[in-house]
Design goal:
Number of helices: 1
Shape: globular
Helix content: under 10%
Distance between the termini: 43 Å
Radius of gyration: 16 Å
Strand content: 35-45%
Oligomer: single chain
Length: 134
């Protein structure tokens, strides 16, 4: 498979060739902090190849105290971007950074015991096509 992706401002674009082996929704405190959301949604591959098409110089990688919590992002808009971990053995791709259709569904919620206190029954929350008035 071949996937294309980009950041929000469009300065950084990339291509991934290969398959994703895993897709997890991570509820750990660090992933909630760096996404500002209930969970991170990350794809993982030990075989896919990442190729930067534009803006590689605008992609910055942050490794929290060298403890293994790694996040790459665009220095212009802050969008999450792919990164390579474990000495080049693992490609981690934020699912929302992919512009193509993804042919894999999440395999599960991880670190679920650390989920946000407001992250309950979200499927029951009303759904709107756009920002509602009032």
């Amino acid at each position: 498979m071949k996937y294309t992706g980009s950041c929000l401002c469009g300065e950084v674009t990339f291509e991934i060739e290969g398959d994703f082996e895993k897709f997890f929704l991570c509820h750990c405190e660090r992933c909630r902090k760096d996404t500002g959301s209930a969970h991170a949604a990350n794809l993982f591959s030990s075989t896919a190849e990442l190729r930067w098409l534009s803006g590689e110089d605008k992609a910055k990688t942050f490794n929290l105290r060298s403890e293994g919590h790694i996040k790459s992002f665009c220095i212009n808009c802050g969008s999450a971007l792919p990164n390579i971990q474990f000495d080049g053995k693992l490609l981690v791709v934020p699912a929302g950074s992919i512009d193509s259709d993804i042919n894999i569904k999440p395999r599960g919620h991880i670190y679920y015991a650390n989920k946000a206190s407001w992250d309950n029954d979200l499927e029951k929350v009303p759904k709107f096509e756009e920002l509602p008035n009032g």
